[in-house]
UniProtKB/TrEMBL annotation:
Keyword vocabulary terms for this entry: Hydrolase
Pfam families to which the protein is assigned, alphabetical: 4HBT
Thioesterase domain span: 56-126
Gene source species: Peribacillus simplex
Membrane found in the keyword field: no
Name of this protein: Thioesterase superfamily protein
UniProt superkingdom: Bacteria
PANTHER family (alphabetical): ACYL-COENZYME A THIOESTERASE PAAI
Listed transmembrane segments: none
InterPro entries: Acyl-CoA_thioesterase_PaaI (IPR052723), HotDog_dom_sf (IPR029069), PAAI_dom (IPR003736), Thioestr_dom (IPR006683)
One MF annotation (Gene Ontology) recorded for this entry: acyl-CoA hydrolase activity
Length: 148
């Protein structure tokens, strides 16, 4: 799936790619922390606070979705090439609780020149909280220093 060019760009520009993804404004605002970044893969964590809960006292679905979407974005942009979400489908399997660490992991399933597909899992210390399947459109532009 990962071409030599994609992998080379990931390795050559790793620090710049990672910094762009770490500095993502919405993820930073929510307190998400990117913990792993590989070619087509990413992992992040979040410890939900009181303002992230719904009226039932569990983690709001929008927060879980946001964490899944963040690792989806990180994994799909890990080659330094601009990738934008086209579609996703999320399934909520269990409730998250305030104060427990949520971990999201994204893995590239397949990609070609224009599209790529990802599987994302969100877990807590005990169980799977949600799963997401998602697809991106891969633009021709890079967001790293000039790539030839």
């Amino acid at each position: 799936m990962t071409t030599h060019l994609d992998k080379d760009i990931h390795e050559l520009h790793y620090n710049q790619i990672k910094q762009v993804l770490v500095d993502e404004p919405y993820a930073s605002f929510l307190g998400m922390r990117l913990t792993k970044l590989g070619p087509g893969t990413a992992e992040a964590e979040l410890i939900p606070s009181d303002h992230m809960l719904n009226s039932h006292g569990t983690v709001h679905g929008a927060i879980i979705f946001s964490l899944a979407d963040y690792v989806f974005a990180a994994a799909s942009n890990s080659y330094g090439k601009i990738a934008v979400g086209v579609s996703n489908n999320i399934n909520f399997l269990s409730a998250g609780k305030r104060g427990e660490t949520l971990i999201a992991r994204a893995e590239e399933i397949k990609k070609n020149h224009k599209l790529a597909w990802y599987k994302i899992d969100v877990l807590n210390e005990r169980e799977l909280i949600a799963t997401m399947e998602a697809m991106v459109f891969r633009k021709n532009q890079y967001f790293v220093d000039q790539v030839e």
